[in-house]
Give the backbone structure.
Amino acid sequence: MAVVAPVIGDWYQKPGRQLFEVVAVDEGDSTIEIQFFDGSVAEVELEAWNDAKYLAAVAPEDYSGSLDIEPEDYGAELNVAGQKNWADPLDFLDQAE
């Protein structure tokens, strides 16, 4: 199995483990800084990276994990799809006079 090279901004996962993003690569120290979805940061030695068999992964759709914010903090409504009070624009068509 080929070693996946770490790319800053890309997401990876070891099978059965947490999803993480590579945030820095220090070639001088031979280390890779990673940030997990919950915001915690860790450092991985380049040699350990090569032995670990990390797989490229898709970035999570919900970006709020590492920001430590709740939906109400950024104004998101949880039940938008179930709204029943939407007005039909055609209801006002006859009132345009």
Summary: Residues 1-59 form a domain with the SH3 type barrels. fold (CATH 2.30.30.30).
